[in-house]
Amino acid sequence: MSIQVWQRPFGAVPLEGGGTEVRVWAPNARGVAVRADGGGHPLEDQGDGVFAATVPLAPGDDYLLVLDGERELPDPCSRFQPEGIRGPSRVVDTARFDVRPGPDLPLDELVIYELHVGTFSDAGTFDGVIPYLDGLRKLGVTAIELMPVATFPGERGWGYDGVYVYAPHPAYGGPDGLARLVDAAHGAGLGVILDVVYNHIGPGGDAIAEFGPYFTDRHHTFWGDALDYAQPAVREWAIGNALMWTREYGIDGLRLDAVHAIYDDSQTHVLRELRERVDGLLISEMGPADFRPVEEWGHDAMWLDNLHHELHVLLTGEREGYYRDYGTPDGLVRELTRPQPERFVVAAQNHDQVGNRAVGDRLPADAHRVALAVVLFSLNTPLLFMGEEHDEDAPFQFFTDHVDPAIAEATREGRKKEFEAFTAFSGAEVPDPQDRATFERSRIAHPPPDPFYAELLRLRRELPRELEVRVDGRVLTMRRGRATLVADLDAKTVHLHT
Predict the structure, then answer these.
(1) How far apart are CA 64 and CA 72, in angstroms?
(2) Which pLDDT score is estimated for 222?
(3) For residues 250-263, b (16+ Cβ closer than 10 Å) or e, as one string?
(4) Which of 130, 172, 483, 485 has an alpha carbon 20 to 30 Å from 162's alpha carbon atom?
(5) Would you state the pLDDT for residue 426?
């Protein structure tokens, strides 16, 4: 089968002349049909495991795919799951979205604001974010970054256990809500970056595996079975998803989660092919200091947590786990003086570095003020985690809403076990991730931002892109043109001189 055939969209795509083309990769099945309103519509075998046909469905219609006349399942590339991962799929006409073009996002001007849709506002929806966009732009933010919004089990979660990755989460407002948010962000002069997960599929992914060999036992990830990117259709599952977000929703960039766990033995790595076919900003999260995203795959930038780790250890004294190799003045200077600093996204806090602590606690206010000042004064691309602009003290805890009782209990027990060996958390009660109160505690407030952070963001736009760094004992001095930042890591004080 030609590459052009593989690269036609999978899922249900409404046609201009009426009807909907449904395409699915299902090599595990002998036959596939669409069931809607009690009727059945067989799909034609196209070869190489692909089944497709134009069927009498319209936008708003619900449907299921039937494998071999027996198993009724949602579409692996469903555009909307209004009843969650176990409900029917719904046809969506994304061509009707009227999203304004986004702003240019040059790396050396990029300031990212990461937020979790469910806990950013009282509404916990895409629409709930919109009233705060103008304030973020005035603060100096140039793009919001949404934690994953693909449909995951239940209503509450971080989003990294998405199952139907083409379907914006119904609890957040579904496809229409996401399109409204992107349009409003562009209207406010903000870009939109979306966090996407192509390293695994969350609990419930066994329904997708019914269709074909999406997974491989040649590789393993911390979160579950590795996806098999040697399969052309699995490559298209991921790349087609990225194309949908950027072309149909007008999203300006993608943050690719944990790319060190995306395995591909093909001649062209799937993440290189993704770069070749997807327009927009690409930022990869790489756990270790592995620079393949920017050196081999052509991505624009990558998350690098090293600066966070150096600052965290120097300001808190914590050295357990992955912090053991950090916390030296030389390490701090190294991270602040890397070549092409704009290609490294750095943070004083992010969802991982807060939420993956036992109780989701943030840095104390004095330590946070120092750490964020250093991040904002640096030449790196800064990321603020929601609430940092006003020294938010609400935790960001690990919360889930698994619909499978066995998985829910395993998640509870696994979370407790994860922190047994950490003396810093000994005796601390690890919050129950399934308890709604854990989610509610993570909701942030919205007081005015601290003028100090607004001043640092203003200076980022004015100062030359040259940085001198000096460490004397435990005092860090950073100079950019007419401005000098002096941070005392022992006293946890920071002063700006202009």
Answers:
(1) 6
(2) 84
(3) bbbbbbbbbbebbb
(4) 130
(5) 53
Q: Which CATH architecture has domain 3-96?
A: Sandwich (2.60)
CATH of 107-463, one of 3.20.20.80, 3.40.470.10, 3.40.50.970, 3.30.540.10: 3.20.20.80
Per-residue tokens: 367: 């330590």
At residue 496, what are phi and psi to the nearest 5 degrees?
-110, 125
User: What are the tokens at 68?
Assistant: 């071999």
Which pLDDT score, from 0 to 100, does residue 1 have? 41
**Per-residue pLDDT at 6:** 62
Phi then psi for 27, rounded to 5 degrees?
Answer: -65, -15
Amino acid, res. 32: V
pLDDT at 417: 81
Structure tokens at 247: 């072309």
Q: For position 2, what pLDDT does the model report? A: 43
Q: Which residues are catalytic?
A: 257, 285
| Residues linked to residue 41 through DSSP beta bridges, in sequence order | 34
In the numeric block, the tokens 């249900």 are attached to 12
Confidence at residue 288, expressed as pLDDT on a 0 to 100 scale: 76
Domain boundaries, the chain: 3-96, 107-463
Q: Give mean pLDDT in consecutive 10-residue pieces for the chain, a chain of 498 residues.
A: 64 95 97 91 95 96 96 97 97 96 97 98 98 98 98 97 97 98 98 97 95 92 89 96 98 97 94 96 91 97 96 94 90 97 98 93 97 98 98 96 92 83 65 96 97 98 97 97 98 97
Residues forming beta bridges with residue 285, ordered by sequence position: 303
3-class DSSP assignment, residue 333: helix
Contact 195, 158 (CB under 8 A): no
Euclidean distance between CA atoms 162 and 483, whole angstroms: 44
- Strand 493-497 and strand 50-55: the pairing is unpaired
3-state helix, strand, coil in the chain (%, to 5): 35, 25, 45
Selection from 448, 422, 345, 359 nearest residue 395 by Cα: 359
Token pair recorded at residue 87? 């409900």
**Dihedrals φ, ψ of 372, to 5°?**
-70, -35
- Calpha distance 282→404 (Å, rounded): 34
Residue ranges in 419-476 assigned as alpha helix (H): 436-441, 451-462
d(CA 32, CA 211): 10
Residue among 380, 106, 148 at smallest CA distance from 256 = 148
Tell me, what's the pLDDT at 251? Answer: 98
Question: Tokens for 237?
Answer: 């599952």
Alpha carbons 151 and 160: distance in angstroms, whole number? 10
Helix, strand, or coil here: 457?
A: helix
Q: Using CA atoms, how far apart are residues 338 and 470, in angstroms rounded to an integer?
A: 14
